[in-house]
Amino acid sequence: MNELAKISPSLLALIDERKDERPPLAREVFLVETVLRDTSYNRTESVFYMLKEGTEVEMRAVPDSDRGPLAVEVVWNDTSLGWLPEGQDGIFSALLAAGKRFVCRISRAKQYNEFLTERPMAKITVKISMLE
């Protein structure tokens, strides 16, 4: 059988060490579009206007947070944008702990004033895909 390339243990180790990059030939499998909870315009004000459709953000499992042991935070440039909703956070927390890789992108970011207090609020919607 003709091989295009010899796959050696050192080549596999090199591919495995690239944690911040996408694996070669990976494809994105769309899973869900969801609205983040606990978003606050005051917290995201410094980056809010940079959050355009398609902006890639990071999901982090935060087991020691006050939101519970399965909480997943969504972050962009070290700014917390919000948290995955309860019910979805446990699934993604377990998959992140198992080493699964995801791509999370902004699909909508909207500012509005809260009805009673007139405080500025942020509504951020993300699309999550798994790398396969």
From TrEMBL:
InterPro entries annotated for this entry?
Answer: HIRAN
Question: Please, which domain of life does this record's source organism belong to?
Answer: Bacteria
Q: Which SMART domains match?
A: HIRAN (SM00910)
State a single Gene Ontology molecular function.
nucleic acid binding
Give UniProt keywords alphabetically: Hydrolase, Metal-binding
| Residue ranges occupied by any HIRAN domain in the UniProt entry | 29-128
Name listed for the protein in its UniProt record: HIRAN domain-containing protein
Tell me what organism the protein belongs to. Answer: Pseudoprevotella muciniphila
Tell me the classification of the organism that encodes this protein.
Answer: Bacteria, Pseudomonadati, Bacteroidota, Bacteroidia, Bacteroidales
